[in-house]
Predict the 3D structure of the following.
Amino acid sequence: MKPVKIILAFVFLILVVSCINHNQSSDKSIEKTNIPENNDEKYINDAKPAGKCPENCVNEKCMTASCSEKTGYKCIYKDIVPCCGNSICEENETYADCPDDCETPPEEFTFSIRDKKYGCKINGTFKLNDMYSRILIESEYTLSLDDYKAYQTDKSKPGEFEFEGATVITDHENDVFCVQGIITGCEHAGMISDEFCWYFTGNVSNFTGQWHEYNFSYNPRRATDYAITNYIRPQDVGFYNEKINLPDDYDDAIAKIHKMMSAKMYIYDATSAKSKEYFRYPNETLDTLQVDCEDWATAFLSLLKNYDPDIKCYNLLIPAHITTLCKFDNEFVIYDQNNYKRDLVITEINYNERRNKFRNWFVNFFGAWNYPAKYRVILGAVDEKGFTEFDTMDDFYDWALKL
């Protein structure tokens, strides 16, 4: 009996030991990886021996892989931003850098024109090479590649431009764009701007939706062409015409206005206003005895226009000078400071004869003032209504004879 009990006891012992070993192995669960909630990093847990990184821990497209003791030998992937090839056109990516992710840009170039001192903008006109003219809104214009190709400078030929009345030949290969209009967006809103021009050094490769800002310097007391209109103000000088008691006769009234204005002595702006160029409003000019040519001419024309709003008188822009031209029936008259007055009566019917007579009159005018040859040109004519620019003296002659 004892041998049987011994055998049964031995078998039971074996079963108990087996049971214990099974339970012990069941309690050893596999360690799980805690994946942090981080959008930029991704973990993978390959069952590898401790102290060794997974063999497949390598960089992937738009992601870098890292594994070390610091990561617990786990493979960490981090997004590369920006990355060309992730089907997202990210910040600082362009079509030129990454055409796979970014859309094809519009074939255009945007010009933005700003005055940094006052914050002024311009509503008016955008011109390219004096051939292409379009509306400028809030100092911005978007030029299409097709329009640029149609009006760009012929790069194979030297360029020409007018400077102080003379035609200058230059070998530059740049296009020229200009803006002009009404000042807006600043304390000087409503004033007329001069024409501001820049060289445009771009080419067709720039027309990929690019945007560039150009700066202009607006000086409300300096004018060169269109802005002179701001200073011809007939509405501000009625008090002066009343003060000098103009006669009833039309010719005598014009003569008295000229005589009273001729009492004002000439003085350089650098002396009177401590500025190289400083435009005064007519009421300011009438309140002083010493003025320069542009102040005299704008005040004089303002008085004439106040007396007769329909009078055919204009200020002529000459390099370094401004004078006043009037047309009365068949008579032309030039008025200037120091009681200067020269007239010309034209009765000829033939246009060429009229034109030659008028041209010779101006040749004598320039000669009387000892103008250098390069200054013997009329750049433009201006009144309170606007500015007319002349490319040549022939353009001026034709304009004047049609008054």
